[in-house]
Amino acid sequence: MGALANWVKLQDQYECYFFIADLHALTTDYADTSNIAPNTLEVALDFLAAGLDPQRCTLFVQSHVKQHYELPLLLGMITPLGWLERVPSYKEMQENLANKDLTTYGFLGYPVLMASDILLYQPQFVPVGQDQQAHVELTRELARRFNQFYKLDGGPNDGEVLPEPKVLLTPSPKLPGTDGRKMSKSYGNTIMMTDPEPVVRQKLKTMVTDPARIRRSDPGEPDKCPVGDLHKVFSTAETFAKVYDGCRSAGIGCIECKSWAANALVQILEPIQIRRAGFTEAQVKEILEDGSSRARARAEQTMQEVRAAMRLTPAAPAAQ
Ligand code: SF4
User: Which atom of ligand 1 lies nearest, measured to the CA of 222?
Assistant: First the structure.
C-alpha cells in the first residue's frame, strides 16, 4: 500500500512505467508456476484499484515485453560473478527459503534481470524505498560498465546508451503485521487490501500492542506499538494526537484505540475495494495488453541502440 500510494502521486509528475514482475516470480517459484498467471491479474487489480490510471502511466506485464528477455542476456555477458554473489539478498533469501533450491543460474542472475527491467526504459529515476537502494546501485554499475565497453557512434551523450538512473527515494512506511512482525503472507499476519470490514475489525482486535501496557491503567507508548504504526500511516492527524495523548496517559483503552485504527483502515480500503470490483477480467487483460504494447515500443528503441553499440550483426531489412 505504501508503494502504491506513492506511485499514484508519481504518475502525474513523471512519465511512469509500472510492471508486474512475473519473470521474477520464476526465480523462486520455477517448480510450481500454477499461481503466476492468476497472481499477475490480482496484482494488476490491486494497482488499478489503488488508483494507477492506464491513461496516465504505462502498466504492463514483464513477460509480455520480449526485450526483458534479451537485455539480461547481453548484460549477463559483462556482469562479473562476484557482483552477484555479494548482493545481500542472495544469501539471505537462500537461507529464508531453505525449502527451495535456489542454487540456480536464474536466481543468481536476478539482479541482472532487474537492472535490465530498469535500463530498458532509459529512465532518469527509479522510485524505491531505502531498503532497495543497493539494487539500484548495482544497476548503475552495470550501466557504467556497459557504457565503458560500448558506445553508439555519433549518438548523443558521448554515445552512452544506458544512462545511470538515480534513486527517487520514496518514504516506505513501516507496516507491521497483526503479530507485530513484518507483514508477510508466509507469517499469516497480513491484513489484505481485499479484506472486508468485519475481517479487518476482527484482525485488529487480535493485534498485539505495546507489551508494557498490561492493564488498562498502565500508560503505553504508541511508538512501541504495532497499532501505533498503523495509526501513523492511516489515521488523520487529529486521531493520531488522541492516540498519543490517550495511550501515554492511560486515558484510552487498547480496544478503543484499535477500533479507531480499524475505522481509518476501512475508510481507506472501502473505495479501493469498490474500484476493484468494477473491473472485469477482460478489461484488466486489455489494459495490460495495451500497456505492454507501449512498453514494447519504448524498450525496442533502447534495444536498437544497445545492439548497434555492441556491433551485433545487423539483421537483413526483410527480417527486421
Ligand atoms: S492504546 Fe493504542 S497505541 Fe497504545 S498500546 Fe494500546 S493499541 Fe497501542
Answer: 3
